[in-house]
Design brief:
By secondary structure, the protein is mainly alpha-helical. About 60% of the residues lie in helices and about 5% in strands.
């Protein structure tokens, strides 16, 4: 096994085969640093998506809780029609795939 001697960038102590410094507990492993950076990036992307979804709701999300009952009823009718159209489209796609196979 190859031993790794890594100098701590914080305190200057040499550490052998360690991920963290024995003196100041600073992270030394570049793999773990990369994993942590990737995890932070991913969390930032998820936060951005949540913020976009909150700031730009869809048509249905925007008007489902409207104060006028006519608007709410209209949205429910449109949503029902949309779901029926999608169900028919999915069935046709499944039928074509079943016939082709």
């Amino acid at each position: 096994m190859v031993s790794r001697n890594i100098k701590c960038p914080n305190c200057g102590v040499y550490n052998t085969n360690r991920d963290y410094c024995s003196e100041c507990n600073t992270l030394l492993s570049y793999k773990k640093r990369r994993e942590l950076a990737h995890k932070k990036e991913q969390e930032a992307r998820l936060d951005l998506r949540r913020l976009e979804k909150k700031n730009n709701p869809s048509f249905f999300e925007k008007y489902e809780a409207h104060r006028f009952w006519m608007v709410r009823a209209f949205v429910k009718v449109i949503k029902s029609i949309w779901m029926a159209v999608m169900a028919v489209g999915i069935f046709i796609a499944w039928l074509i795939a079943a016939i082709a196979a």
